[in-house]
């Protein structure tokens, strides 16, 4: 297994997401330092590393939610900042560790928020939006939660609803920070099956995970250490087990 110094030009053009020498400075130090990789359509990848390795910061920068100190992020071959916000939101769905949603909102409305990039703030949800939201709820085994308020849910139920909101976007790229958080084992397995199905349908996903065993179910594993990408490869690569 090797660390790519720079993706080839054709890989950049074909990538769902590409980072080139990405650096992020926080608190006066480089928390992400010179990270370069390309994620292709049809792949889901896991980012692993010890606490403080920079995993969540990397994901925030890839989503455009943190300023970069160095490097470039490309979405479908174009610089991230070249995308109009609404178009970018249609192509990239985000789920953070502290995903925001008002506690008094009904589950149906929370998931419908994922459709905002399609109908806009001033537009009313369409039948297609509601169908996409219902399909996302079903994919997350959360249909029975529809109509309940978010603040009435357990941690695991809430996480399934927020995952459904991300899936409802129907974006080609998913960026997920610790998506198994609060989920019981059956729902964790369902989550990973959904990521595999998303990739099999031609999408791409990048998920930060703390569980290396779970990460080995991904198509690729990226290992961060002190903000640097120190290894990447397929799960069967022996170096990932050292």
Walk me through this protein's architecture.
With 242 residues, this protein is of the alpha/beta class. It is 32% helix and 25% strand. The protein contains 9 helices and 10 strands. It has helices at 9-14, 55-62, 85-91, 107-112, 116-119, 127-139, 155-168, 185-200, 212-215, and strands spanning 17-26, 29-39, 44-48, 70-75, 78-79, 92-95, 173-177, 204-208, 220-225, 228-233. The protein has a 6-stranded mixed β-sheet, sandwiched between helices. Strands 2-1-4-5 form a 4-stranded antiparallel β-sheet. A hairpin with a 2-residue loop joins strand 9 (220-225) and strand 10. Helix 6 (127-139) packs across helix 7 (155-168). The protein is globular and about 45 Å long. Mean pLDDT is 89; it is low at 1-8.
Record the SSE blueprint.
Blueprint: H1 9-14, E1 17-26, E2 29-39, E3 44-48, H2 55-62, E4 70-75, E5 78-79, H3 85-91, E6 92-95, H4 107-112, H5 116-119, H6 127-139, H7 155-168, E7 173-177, H8 185-200, E8 204-208, H9 212-215, E9 220-225, E10 228-233
Parallel strand pairs: 3-8, 3-9, 6-7, 7-8
Antiparallel strand pairs: 1-2, 1-4, 4-5, 9-10
Helix pairs in contact: 6-7
């Amino acid at each position: 297994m090797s660390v790519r110094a720079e993706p080839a030009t054709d890989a950049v053009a074909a990538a769902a997401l590409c980072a080139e020498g990405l650096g992020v400075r926080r608190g006066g130090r480089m928390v992400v330092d010179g990270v370069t990789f390309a994620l292709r359509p049809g792949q889901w990848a896991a980012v692993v590393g010890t606490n403080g390795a920079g995993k969540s910061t990397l994901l925030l920068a890839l989503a455009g939610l943190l300023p970069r100190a160095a490097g470039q992020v490309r979405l479908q071959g174009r610089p991230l900042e070249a995308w109009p916000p609404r178009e970018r939101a249609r192509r990239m769905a985000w789920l953070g560790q502290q995903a925001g949603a008002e506690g008094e909102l009904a589950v149906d409305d929370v998931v419908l928020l994922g459709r905002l990039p399609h109908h806009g703030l001033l537009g009313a949800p369409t039948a297609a939006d509601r169908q996409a939201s219902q399909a996302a709820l079903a994919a997350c085994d959360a249909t029975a939660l529809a109509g309940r308020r978010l603040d009435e849910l357990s941690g695991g139920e809430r996480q399934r609803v927020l995952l459904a909101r991300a899936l409802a976007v129907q974006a080609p790229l998913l960026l997920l920070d610790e998506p198994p958080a609060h989920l019981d084992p059956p729902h964790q397995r369902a989550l990973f099956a959904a990521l595999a199905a998303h990739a099999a349908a031609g999408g791409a996903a990048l998920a930060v995970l703390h569980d290396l065993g779970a990460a080995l179910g991904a198509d690729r594993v990226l290992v961060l250490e002190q903000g640097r990408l120190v290894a990447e490869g397929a799960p069967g690569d022996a170096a990932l087990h050292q």
